[in-house]
Design the sequence.
């Protein structure tokens, strides 16, 4: 059980790298092939880079921006997590929400990247028709202990490439999890209250990281 929890922590951190990027045009690729290639690339990058495993925020942000960014519809992900109040947000507030959500995700899971070691991602056969524009790619992350479920929801609405917009780790969809958390902040303080809460989480995570780095 302990090995499974440890592996799940690493998977959650690995998953967070998928979640923290805005929309950029990507090359046309089947959704299962995209997930397989990027999963392998990201895992190998983590294993080969001690700065990532040590939770170096600047390095993690660089990998997110350069490697993951073209393949995630982070605007859709953020709007889904915020819920109906997203429509009431100004363009400036929407940009802040995306940025603060991204920063929070990176800092929340940065420390767990040290759990990534000998994992590999096995992509299951895709159950989708060629004309489908919204698909579920199921995978398992294999390492020590039992495999960990990691599923991806992708969309292709413009014909220019697939974008990931949600992740499922061990049966829990991350967007829905954050929607529940965000709803509490929105009910208390509206859009600005949520932005401030996300920024506070980032500050707290940075303070915890700095404290743990002290001799």
Sequence:
């Amino acid at each position: 059980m302990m090995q499974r929890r440890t592996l799940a922590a690493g998977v959650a951190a690995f998953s967070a790298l998928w979640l923290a990027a805005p929309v950029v045009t990507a090359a046309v690729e089947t959704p299962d092939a995209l997930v397989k290639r990027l999963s392998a690339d990201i895992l190998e990058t983590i294993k080969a880079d001690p700065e990532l495993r040590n939770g170096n925020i600047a390095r993690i942000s660089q990998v997110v921006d350069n490697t993951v960014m073209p393949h995630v519809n982070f605007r859709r992900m953020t709007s889904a997590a915020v819920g109906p109040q997203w429509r009431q947000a100004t363009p400036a507030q929407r940009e802040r929400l995306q940025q603060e959500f991204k920063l929070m995700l990176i800092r929340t899971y940065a420390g767990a990247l040290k759990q990534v070691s000998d994992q590999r991602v096995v992509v299951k056969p895709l159950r989708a028709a060629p004309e489908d524009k919204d698909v579920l790619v199921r995978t398992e992350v294999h390492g020590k202990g039992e495999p960990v479920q990691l599923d991806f929801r992708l969309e292709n609405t413009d014909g220019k490439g697939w974008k990931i917009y949600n992740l499922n780790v061990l049966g829990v969809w991350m967007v829905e999890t954050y929607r529940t958390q965000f709803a509490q902040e929105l009910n208390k303080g509206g859009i600005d209250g949520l932005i401030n809460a996300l920024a506070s989480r980032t500050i707290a995570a940075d303070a915890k990281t700095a404290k743990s780095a002290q001799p």
Q: What stands out?
A: The chain has a mean pLDDT of 83. The longest strand covers residues 134-142. Residues 12 and 141 are 11 Å apart (CA to CA).
